[in-house]
Design goal:
Elements: H1 2-36, H2 60-69, H3 71-83, H4 87-96, H5 98-104, H6 107-123, H7 127-143, H8 147-164, H9 167-189, H10 193-209, H11 213-229, H12 234-247
Helix pairs in contact: 1-2, 1-4, 3-4, 4-6, 4-7, 5-6, 6-7, 7-8, 7-9, 8-9, 9-10, 10-11, 11-12
Length: 248
Amino acid sequence: MTEGIATTDSAKERDLAIGGVLNFYQHTAALADTHLAQHTRPAATRPASPPTAAPDLREPGQALAWIQAERANVLACINYAQSHGQHTLVVGLTASLASLLRSDGPWTQAIDLHTAAVAAARRCADRLGEANALHELGVVRYLTDDYPEAAQILQAALGIFRDLGNRLGEANALNYLGGVRQDRGLARAVHSPREEARALEGSGRCALAVGQAAAAVAEFRRALVIYQRIGAAESTRLAADLADLEAE
């Protein structure tokens, strides 16, 4: 009898310890992401109370250093939550990695994570979480130049945001849908490689002007490939601008 009680107590202690770790990473990763996000997102799932040992992240540099150093641990928490059916935690933790996944990639991993977050949000009937996950998935598809898929996913996110009456989410989705449609139109309309590269560079500078650094980097990279392929003089200038942007 005593042995059974000891086993039960041990299991409870283990569960409490794991819960504390998950709470720590959910709270701290979400805090880090608030400093790194390129635009304000609709409210995401947060732990009920902040952990006592949470680091004091007050600046973007601190937030970036922490999330990059702890990336593997956050991913381990996501894997644990997935394997134990903790769908709300999957949604929250993945959302907290969104900014890092945009900037550091790899985008194939980002696509897998956001796809899983969409499914998790649907399982726990979290409509806002589903919309946010769809939005992030659509943005990554956009960054990989998969315009048709990006447009379809962002449109789905937009529909949910509108159903919820969430104007912030609606504005974010519309912003990226505009970028997708603009770039698709440019790709179809432009026949000169130099003009195509200039259009991509212009799109990147527009993205940079509204604080979308990751999107700007993606557009500059695409433009630079074309400039270099055709031996355009613009390649030297754009390469320098891109290097400066990536160093920030």
